[in-house]
């Protein structure tokens, strides 16, 4: 049976034109190499080398085998290198999810942009969704990692790594009496105001944090409107349906119709990276390490 090593042996002998020099190149003894070349000739049923007084040269059949063997070995080397690069996370694919609010945090955009620059051979697929949708996609293996705001209630089978905490801010319509306030306001200043909040099933962590912060400030918020997405809260506030509390990075979306107010003791909006608890491999491992490196830096 002909094996790849026979092709490597033959290429070395043909290129060196001398069995002894080929044996040195291959790191083996000359007699076993000569035996392997003879075994290859017997298996093919044709002579591959002209034995000369000072060396060897390929026969016509040998020249054909030399060209084909080089092509086969080159293809094999490319395949092995592709496998190695995929294992190192230089090639492959990674699917990353993010909640609507996480997408606007500078850390998330910097992480994605930096990874694209560091691993241009990796295809990135992006998906936006609620925390529950992203967690379900992780468990179904449609996503490899996801930036989420709230901790996961049932974290079985997942690893949820905290990345950072972001202060939250109050947003009010541009014509609101508090709109011109430059100093941080107490959360209690919003007591009695109608609130626009993100629907709890979509983002239970932020929703519960806001409710808890309001109660700690001495009031229960009157929820006048629930937004289907956190991004929608700004539009509803601008339309005059109420006030809201959002992560500070969301203020970048303000088109001028709302006023952003700092809070004296703001609740925080955490940012986490969630993934399956199996050890990440390839591009996913490299992406996770890239994000961790940004946190450490």
From TrEMBL:
Alphabetical list of PROSITE patterns matching this protein: HTH_LYSR
Residue intervals of the HTH lysR-type domain: 2-59
Database matches in Pfam families: HTH_1, LysR_substrate
Cross-referenced InterPro entries: BudR_PBP2, LysR_HTH_N, LysR_subst-bd, WH-like_DNA-bd_sf, WH_DNA-bd_sf
Matches recorded under Gene3D superfamilies: Periplasmic binding protein-like II (3.40.190.10), Winged helix-like DNA-binding domain superfamily/Winged helix DNA-binding domain (1.10.10.10)
Stretches of the chain forming a coiled coil according to its record: none
UniProt name for this protein: LysR family transcriptional regulator
């Amino acid at each position: 049976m002909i094996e790849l090593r026979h092709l490597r042996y033959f290429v070395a002998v043909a290129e060196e034109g001398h069995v002894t020099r080929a044996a040195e190149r291959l790191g083996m003894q000359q007699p076993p190499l000569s035996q392997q070349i003879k075994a290859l000739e017997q298996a093919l049923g044709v002579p591959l080398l002209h034995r000369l007084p000072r060396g060897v040269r390929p026969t016509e059949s040998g020249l054909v085998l030399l060209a084909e063997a080089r092509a086969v070995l080159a293809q094999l080397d490319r395949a092995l290198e592709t496998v190695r690069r995929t294992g190192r996370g230089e090639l492959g694919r990674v699917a990353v999810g993010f909640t609507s609010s996480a997408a606007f945090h500078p850390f998330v955009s910097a992480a994605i942009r930096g990874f694209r620059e560091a691993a241009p051979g990796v295809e990135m697929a992006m998906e936006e969704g609620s925390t529950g949708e992203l967690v379900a996609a992780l468990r179904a293996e449609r996503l490899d990692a996801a930036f989420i705001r709230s901790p996961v209630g049932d974290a079985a089978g997942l690893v949820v790594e905290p990345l950072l905490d972001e202060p939250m801010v109050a947003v009010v319509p541009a014509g609101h009496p508090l709109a011109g306030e430059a100093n941080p306001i107490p959360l209690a200043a919003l007591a009695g105001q109608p609130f626009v909040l993100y629907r709890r099933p979509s983002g239970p962590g932020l929703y519960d944090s806001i409710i808890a912060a309001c109660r700690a400030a001495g009031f229960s918020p009157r929820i006048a409107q629930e937004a289907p997405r956190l991004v929608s809260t700004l539009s509803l506030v601008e339309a005059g349906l109420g006030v809201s509390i959002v992560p500070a990075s969301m203020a970048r979306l303000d088109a001028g119709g709302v006023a952003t107010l700092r809070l004296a003791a703001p609740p925080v909006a955490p940012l986490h990276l969630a993934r399956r608890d199996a050890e990440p491999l390839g591009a996913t491992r490299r992406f996770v390490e890239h994000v961790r490196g940004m946190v450490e830096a």
